[in-house]
Amino acid sequence: MPLPQQLTAENIEKQLQSLLPHLKTLSSDDDRQHYGKDWTNFYPPAPSVIVFPRSTDDVKKIVLWANEQEIALVPSGGRTGLSGGACATDHEIVVSFDAMNRIHSFDPIEQTCVCEAGVITQTLQEFAQEKDFYYPVDFASVGSSQIGGNLGTNAGGIKVIRYGMTRDWVLGLTVVTGKGDVLHINQGLIKNATGYDLKNLFIGSEGTLGFIVEATIKLAKPPRDLVVMVLGLSELVSIYPVLKTFRGGLDLTAFEFFSDKAMKHVLKDENLSAPFDSPASFYAVIEFDQQNAQELETAISLFESCVENDWVIDGVISQSQEQYQKLWALRENISESIAPYKPYKNDIAVTISHVKAFLDEVDALVNQQYPEWEVIWFGHIGDGNLHLNILKPENLSIEDFTQRCGDVSQQIFKVVQKYRGSISAEHGVGLLKKDYLSYSRSPEEIEYMRAIKKVFDPKGILNPGKIFD
To answer: I want to staple 238 with a disulfide (CB 3.0 to 4.6 A). Which of 311, 312, 321, 428 is the partner?
Structure first.
């Protein structure tokens, strides 16, 4: 949606500052480059202006003004997205929620807090910890991602096997729709059987229906004495029987995996040591809370069973908080360590019962299609979510690289479709995945989604071009 001819970046700033005298705006080349992109790195940023509302009323006035001018708005949080959902590529106004970063209230009886969209995920985790509670949504970008962005993509992370997705921890939302209406949805209720659940409609909508400005977040009791194990696997397909074995004996909080190629990047970048000397092609990360000595004994017994079945080569279990953090760093620091290689990311999911067969097919396909490229596997295999990362060869242009990866992705998504899986488990659709939406959604579903978009955003000003055109 290009700018109307009568509007320049300078005119936009003047009009919005006249409407909202306190509104901070930015429009330098460096600022537009910074706020116009996310971690995808495939889409050249080209926003017109960046604005920083400080309240729900500010957001409402900006949206109403944008409707009058018929100019597009793109929401911006921590910009840690991996599907281009926060990219502004066609002179849009970027609405940054950096200034809406307050935690308004905490209720120990309800076990909830109310926070604005710009609150950093780690800030919410630390706030909950200070109150002797726990916010369990956790992933590598917690130090920079914002709650609004997490809600927009229904972020998952490493604790889904026990605690579920972001939507499972939301009891209410305040949203400014594409029409400029302010909706106070569900208002913190656990039970509410009064018609359609608009709360869950907005969660995962990537800012295409409305801008989430505030959320009522449910908190949990903190887990006790978390323990992590790292196991070396004999081959990739051993992941499934190891998962089945440990889930059968322990109540896990996480079950992750990564390849030796992924670990080599982390060891190089983070100056860490390998977990043990025995070489392995793939590794499993298993976390559980140790309520008593029995859990530890059970974990060791399950490990021994996996070794006897030749699924596991070697393993290590954390003996201190420092070792716990170092072992987790092997998995959590992968995305950061491979980021300089501009990886093409496939964020795919199938039901857990299909993981083994799905892995067999996709791994064979990838080895055939990328025989000379570096392929990095990791992911949340405990909930069926796999991250397949293709690293860009140094001598290949970004355009040729993305074209080649896109062609192969279609073949991968045919396998996803065969197993009735998802082409995007937790990163959203954005720009990167919208051409492949039909592999996970039927034509009828997509038409209903388009119709819903028109109801909440009739002029199509909110994050246009994301999810579908």
So the answer is: 311
Q: If we measure between CA atoms, which residue out of 346, 349, 383 comes closest to residue 164?
A: 383
Q: What burial letters (b/e) apply to 240-253, b meaning 16+ CB within 10 Å?
A: bbbbebbbeebebb
CA-atom Rg of the chain in angstroms: 23
Please state, as a whole number, how many other Cβ atoms lie within 10 Å of the Cβ of residue 369.
17
- Confidence at residue 206, expressed as pLDDT on a 0 to 100 scale: 98
Alpha-helix residue ranges (DSSP H) falling in 6-120: 9-19, 29-35, 56-69
CA distance 169 to 163: 9
Sheet strand arrangement including 49-52 = 24-26, 49-52, 93-96, 73-76
Please say if the pLDDT value at position 3 is more than 80. Answer: no
SS3 285: strand
Q: Which residue has the tokens 């609004």?
A: 148
Residue 85, SS3? coil
Give pLDDT tens digits for 315-353: 999 999 999 999 999 999 999 899 899 899 999 999 988
* Among 401, 227, 240, 243, residue whose Cα is nearest residue 316: 227
**Residue 31 C-alpha from the chain's centroid:** 24
Q: How many CB atoms lie within 10 A of CB 273?
A: 9
Token pair of 138, please?
């956790």
Rounded to 10°, the helix 260-270/321-332 angle is: 120
- The H-or-E segment that residue 249 falls in is helix 239-249
| pLDDT higher than 70, residue 2 | no
Instruction: At 52, give phi and psi (nearest 5°).
Output: -130, 80
Dist. CA 312–CA 314, nearest whole Å: 6
Contact 43, 95 (CB under 8 A): no
Look at residues 357, 3, 461, 401 and name the one whose alpha carbon lies nearest to residue 365.
Answer: 357
Tell the residue number behind the tokens 């999810």, with chain if given.
467
Packing angle of the helix pair 56-69, 9-19 (nearest 10 deg)? 130
